[in-house]
Amino acid sequence: MRNCFHFVGEQQLSDGSLRLKLDIDPSLFVTVGFILESLEGCCIYTTVFEEKKQFLQVDIPPDYITTTKQLMDAIESYLDS
Known about the structure:
Elements: E1 5-12, E2 18-24, H1 29-37, E3 44-50, E4 53-60, H2 65-79
């Protein structure tokens, strides 16, 4: 499934959290949501709409940035291989 999951934005928030914006194939929103739910407390995610396009927005608290980014990178690598 090439090009079905990629990072399109990253923003450092005022509380030190990291906000990631992900462009994900719509058929994978539920699957990625289940994976993120399993990280209970490590991140908060929501769906955002911009110009009729759907993105996944993930906010990661400072203590979990490294671990959660590593997981997101692994998911991206797996889905895009």
